[in-house]
Amino acid sequence: MALLHFVIILLYLLSSAGYVYFLFAQKEIFHRLSFAILMAGFAAHTAWIGYESFRLGVIPAQNLHQTLSFAAWCLTGVYLLVKYRFRLNMLGVFAAPLASVIMIAAFFVPEIPTTQNQLFRSLWLVAHIVILFIAEASMALACGTGLLYLIQEHAIKTKSNRFFLKRLPSLEFLDRTGYAFIASGFALLTIGLIAGFIYAQIVWGRFWSWNNKEIWSMITWLIYAALLHERLVAGWRGRRAAIMAIIGFAALLFTFLGVNFLLEGHHDAFTRW
User: Fold this and answer.
1) pLDDT by residue (tens digit) across 139-159?
2) Where are the domains of the chain?
């Protein structure tokens, strides 16, 4: 399946190049071509996920190689879905390259052989993993939208760079779209964490064990909860919301990767990375 993995990376990279060219040329044909290539890459990626799930008998998220690939698949899938809803074509400039980088990282990470682990067959754990990965993909797109907001805001204020001013959507549209990503991602994040708590109760006999992964997951949840609270109560919008979306995603990345590399916890025993 190494060849299929390479094909997926190639398609994602071609899509990324197309989106970057679309940013400069602003010709719809390049957007449509890039989107079609990204869909082809996602289809191939879906075939890989399906094959690995069938081969392993469990969701392919047992080591870093599989987990990174699964994360890139979720990110691409969520972008393809929301693209029709929000018609934020320019977000492909962020989504496609990020998926490419994640897949390249997965390609160079050794695929450590995994043994059949009955713990991964729990429906609660499957729900926990899948829902959290979709939530993280939504938060990644919120971060990308936040970056576009800051770039566009700077272009409007300085009036020195009309390149982005003519190419990016309005600030109101970016702010509204970013909020939609965060609101939906936060709901999924909450559901995913609840599924994880229930699974922990079943396996370890307790909902919470002060594990490093659990602590940082809760910190990340609180960051997004604070952002939503302040937006609804204090009217946080625009620049503050964009910056908080970026900070929240940084915390999410640390929870996803940094905790496993720098700290210890019972999640390490599952994922072996």
Assistant:
1) 999 999 999 999 988 888 887
2) 1-77+86-116, 119-273
